[in-house]
Fold:
Amino acid sequence: MFKKIVIFGVGLIGGSIALALKKHPEAPHIVGVGRAQQSLQEALDLGLIDSAETDIASALHAADLVIIATPVAQTPAILKAIRPYLDESTIITDAGSTKSDVMAYARAELGDQVNQFVGGHPIAGAEKSGPAAAMADLYLGKNVILTPDAQTSNSALDQVSRLWQQCGAVVSHMSAQEHDSVFAAVSHLPHLLAFALVEDLAKRSNAELLFKFAASGFRDFTRIAGSHPEMWRDIALANKTALLSELRLYQQALSDMTALLEADDSRALHDLFEHASRARNDWAKSKIQ
Ligand SMILES: NC(=O)C1=CN([C@@H]2O[C@H](COP(=O)(O)OP(=O)(O)OC[C@H]3O[C@@H](n4cnc5c(N)ncnc54)[C@H](O)[C@@H]3O)[C@@H](O)[C@H]2O)C=CC1
Ligand SMILES: O=C(O)C(=O)Cc1ccc(O)cc1
Structure:
């Protein structure tokens, strides 16, 4: 178990790591470093962290792990700021939703200490953000992807794996590039579609009427459009190439569906819905087991 952990960004993701670790008998001392004094104070009041620091040198003194859980575009500045205070055994990891950008930032900012960096991404979260949204059981049974490369130290990788296992998660490894192409399809694209649909309706002159009668299907499809704007701006820009390719595939799927509807192709529409419905139900069943 780590003895002193510094978390940059004590919101939903960083705060949930802190709460999960606090359930262990030998819980580490957890220091929070934040951008907004108010949310750091909230994290202290909620008992997510043991102390709050604004001074990076004191925050990092004798720290054995640094976790970056901020929007991904904050990563290079944080790595630059901590570099002078890292000793040779301090491990650095992150929880960002994109990984090629983060791995490149680590190579650019950490120099010969890049082997101490382990890229990570918990596949668990919510449309809610901030310290008050943190949950001790957020990671129970959930996947965490780590993206080691040829330079990553095995010992750092093992220790970060164990940290996530202590939070109840199931750890897998992938290259950063594979990670970004998988999550462009199953996470980043759906979030953009939800934002696009809500925005399209919200801009219409009869938006009030539309929202008044929208029901559970709309709620399910658009829940994630309530997510944090800065976080999603950063994810979209960081994973732009993979996301643009998913958007093009989706546009083609919409064009194909439009053509079927225009042609009143009842049989093809039914087959498409049947195939998609079976795939969705099989996926949901496989998640319950
Ligand atoms: N929300 C989700 O469901 C998931 C989010 N992630 C990733 O985790 C990261 C954090 O997301 P959340 O916890 O949801 O966001 P959040 O908004 O709940 O928390 C982020 C915290 O970082 C702080 N912050 C921002 N810039 C900072 C800086 N330069 N230095 C120190 N603190 C700073 C903010 O004040 C905030 O308290 C993001 O990179 C996101 O892509 C990963 C998996 C799931
Ligand atoms: O709210 C939801 O259902 C999510 O999908 C949360 C989420 C958001 C970003 C991630 O990188 C991983 C999980």
